[in-house]
Specification:
The structure is a single chain. With 412 residues, the chain is of the alpha/beta class. The chain has two domains: 226 residues, 3-Layer(aba) Sandwich (Rossmann fold); 173 residues, Rossmann fold (3-Layer(aba) Sandwich). Helices cover 39% and strands 17% of the residues.
Length: 412
């Protein structure tokens, strides 16, 4: 059985990393898995990406031209990424001529392959969704519910004007995707969205989490890692991280700022410090009232493992999220999470067993959760449970065998 993964990248962003980990987990149980991408930094022979400068330039040019063209005809106040997937790429022809038995799609937008070409693939398809794009219009996360009943003039949001890009993109999906594909969602929340969507509600659907190598991502002596990072041994360190997370409203950094200010002004004094990864120190820094360490963009896994292990708690204040890799990485390292009870966070966090789930967007409850996790009688208990539950739910071998069953059923 030969598995072919199609992903925009195998290292850029959470979706690409998740796709790479799925591919790697399949190889570890001796499945014949390979990956085709538009961008790669891997020397792994099983990951195939463009090698010529002209091809790499063309990939960048397609993305730039399409994004800027539709920017002028589609007016919206939304900062959510949009993809129209309109330019032909020849991927479907290459896939159909390959020896693959199963085609496994991941995040394939930003003009990697057109909507029409996806419908032209004539092999069994498994599609792991890493956001909402597949059943929405052009948007990757939806701020409304047009995707439930369909995209019509009557349900267009007031903050959009000009050409209805989302309606046009959704109608092209409806036209070209006539054959149902096997949909996989990493979280129950996203599965629930799929089952309600006008586009995919009758397609086969399963929930399979994103895998992580728990032999690699594991607890490390906290004293040693703090010495390595020049952090105080007795400080209570909070962690927040996302690529450009402070600028993305969906990641809720503004809510975290409010919660930490509430802690500073309304709760007992604690030796708090904050670590932020995924961005460099800004010119104008928010005043938290306690030390903040900007760790920058981390490129290697060992550095990330050290950062997770240096923290006492990781905070994920997202307004929308599927199944963030950072949450699974942190709990694999034994670092409890505090998050709002939204999206796929309940797939990672068991309330007051592996972390704390605050009421959605309740700043007071989020700050209470931080204090509760940092309590003397809670932290060690939560840390051990977080690690144990991550191994039980997201270990590579478990996830790989779940995918293997999906593939085998498609080939019967």
């Amino acid at each position: 059985m030969k598995i072919l993964h199609l992903s925009y990248s195998n290292y850029l962003g959470g979706a690409s990393i998740a796709a790479q980990r799925i591919h790697s987990s399949l190889k570890k149980i001796n499945l014949d898995s390979k990956m085709w991408v538009n961008k790669t930094n891997s020397k792994d022979f099983s990951v195939d990406g463009p090698s010529s400068k002209s091809t790499k330039l063309l990939i960048k040019l397609k993305s730039y031209l399409v994004r800027n063209f539709f920017k002028y005809i589609f007016n919206t106040q939304s900062e959510i990424m949009h993809s129209v997937s309109i330019i032909p790429s020849r991927w479907s022809k290459k896939i159909n001529n390959s020896d693959a038995d199963i085609v496994h799609l991941h995040w394939i937008q930003d003009e990697m392959i057109s909507i029409r070409e996806i419908g032209e693939i004539n092999k069994p398809i498994v599609w792991t969704l890493h956001d909402m794009w597949t059943f929405c219009g052009a948007e990757h996360y939806s701020e409304n519910f047009r995707w439930v009943k369909g995209y019509f003039k009557e349900n267009r949001p007031d903050n959009e004007s000009g050409f209805d890009l989302n309606k046009w993109t959704w109608e092209r999906k409806k036209k070209y995707w006539q054959k149902p594909m096997q949909i996989i969602t990493p979280s129950k929340w996203l599965a629930n969205c799929v089952s309600k969507s006008a586009l995919l509600n009758n397609w086969p659907l399963s929930v399979i989490g994103n895998p992580i190598d728990t032999d690699c991502w594991k607890p490390i002596n906290k004293k040693l890692v703090r010495e390595h990072l020049n952090l105080k041994e007795n400080a209570q360190i909070l962690l927040f991280g996302a690529i450009g997370g402070s600028k993305d409203p969906r990641k809720g950094f503004d809510l975290l700022i409010k919660a930490l200010k509430f802690l500073r002004t309304n709760k007992e004094k604690m030796p708090l410090e904050l670590m932020i990864f995924g961005e460099s120190s800004p010119k104008i820094k928010p005043d938290f009232g306690f030390p903040v360490h900007y760790m920058g963009h981390i490129q290697d896994e060992l550095s990330m493992q050290i950062i997770y292990n240096a923290a006492d708690v990781m905070i994920i204040p997202s307004r929308q999220d599927n199944l963030p890799n950072s949450g699974i990485e942190a709990t694999a390292c034994g670092t409890p999470l505090v998050a709002f009870d939204i999206g796929g966070m309940s797939d990672i966090v068991q309330h007051k067993k592996t972390g704390y789930l605050a009421k959605a967007f309740d700043i007071n409850d989020l700050s209470d959760g931080i204090l509760w996790v940092l309590g003397e009688n809670n932290h060690d208990y939560l840390s051990k449970n977080a690690r144990k539950e991550t191994i039980n739910k997201f270990s590579e071998k478990k996830i790989a065998h779940e995918y293997q069953k999906i593939y085998e059923n498609l080939l019967i």
